[in-house]
Amino acid sequence: MFFKVLYMNTQDYLQDIKEIKDLMNKSTQFISLSGLSGVLAGIYALVGAGYVYYLIENHTENYITLESSTFKLILLTAMIVLLASLFTSYVLTVKKAKKMGEEVWNASSKRLLINFFIPLITGGIFAILLLRNGYYGLVAPITLIFYGLACVNASKYTLRDVRYLGITEVILGLMAVEFSGYGLYFWVIGFGICHIIYGSVMYFKYDRK
Amino acid sequence: MKNIIQNINKAFDHRIRLGIMSVLMVNESADFSTLKELLGVTDGNLASHTKALESENYIVVEKQFIGKKPNTSYKATPEGRKAFRDHIEALEKLIQKS
């Protein structure tokens, strides 16, 4: 008799667990995004920008050409900042997800990543094409605008704050078109300072709980 | 065996309450109509279950106006999250045992 009851319960519990899983997938936003990783990404961007500024100051010729070692170093710096930011976000987000009891690789984080990367990769390719065609001045605005759009697009699947970060980046990007020649400063504001501000807001709002 | 049964939480011993918690575990917050749609229940039914969870301190209710429409949304509390995780762990252990 006891075993029969237990068996029935097991069936019920299995059903419960299946339903829980379905509901979680259906309804989700990925909420384990780490605010702290935003702050760190901002700091990496500031350090990177500082180094790029130093490179430009020490560049002896008048123009920075695509073949020059200065340009290659700038590109390398940007890549390192990007990769370090992505890696940090990944590590901290995994940590936070564990704490919150959320799967890192679930339907919502996949949706989040796909929707984030579609505009981002489009912007990246666009920026490379612009460089190849000599429109150097537009690279800073384009990267800011597409990064902003990527954030807005991804924000449907994660914390709301990412949306406002995205809108801010888009506005900065549009402004940077008007102030060409100050691209590096807009990068410092957009990728450095904005990340630190929004990252801290998110950190105090969500991470510390 | 006794220990496992102890962790099976009475408050979650209902499909709808379990459903509400599942949704709130993975969302910042969810409003009344979203929950209703996801769970496929009537207003009165949902209201009574949210009230039960609220009185356990597992969720909090936030009422505000969006335009002229009143909007009720729910959030899981840290206590609720912990209770839910313990409950799931207990379920898993029970299933493994048998």
TrEMBL record, chain B:
Q: InterPro entries from the xrefs?
A: WH-like_DNA-bd_sf (IPR036388), WH_DNA-bd_dom (IPR027395), WH_DNA-bd_sf (IPR036390)
Q: Where is the Winged helix DNA-binding domain?
A: 16-95
UniProt cross-references to SUPFAM superfamilies, sorted A to Z:
Winged helix' DNA-binding domain
Domain of life, per the record?
Answer: Bacteria
Q: What is this protein called?
A: Transcriptional regulator
